[in-house]
Amino acid sequence: MTRTFKTDVASSPCMLGESNPDIIPHESAPESVALLNGLSRVFGIRLTEKQDTPDTRFLSDLTRLFHQRRVDAEAQMEKHDTPWANVYLIQYGIMRLFREAPSGKVAVHHFFTEGDMVWPVFGRSRTVRNTLCLTTVTPATVWVADFAAFRAAIHAHGEGLWPQFAMALTEELAELTSMREFRKHTMSAKERYHLLLEEYPELVKRVPDNQLASWLGVVPATFSRLKTGAIKG
Length: 233
Description:
This is Crp/Fnr family transcriptional regulator. The protein has eight helices and eight strands, in the order ααββββββββαααααα. By secondary structure, it is an alpha+beta fold. Strands 1-8-3-6 form a four-stranded antiparallel β-sheet. A four-stranded antiparallel β-sheet has the order 2-7-4-5. It is globular.
């Protein structure tokens, strides 16, 4: 399989409707290049022109496991009481990880955006005792692979690869969760809201307020007052 690792350059939009000899047409990069670039970022592998290296073979084996899906907003990807089945690489869109109580109350734990890989970090989530749900927030384009096959492929390329990969995301989620809990107990809702604006401006623009409120740990009415106060300020 031949792969080309280059960035296509587009001409200025105002010239695209003209038959201008200075415009050099470029073919669109195939979707598989987006997948390959995404996997290389996740695993910290620098792409080169060399086709027969351990890193190239590793990424090539992984790309064969994925297929692309385009889904609408609020599409249910994984649900509680069911073993988490897949691993997802987000090409476009936002997904939310949450738990829902029998009463219907929702606790949002994390938002994933473009370039993120989402998979069942916790062992319990791979069983029928799974309590986590994964749903799209916006329309999304995602690459999907069977989790068991994905993990087996990584194991096949080295004994220590899976623990190294798994630990990185596990530690990141644990750190973000513990910091959010710390802020809930030590900072006011107003202070936490302003940090949200500073640290996640793209989420504020793209995620519905009720979901941001759950993530922030306040009721929607409080979030609305915080938002109104920030606009007036």
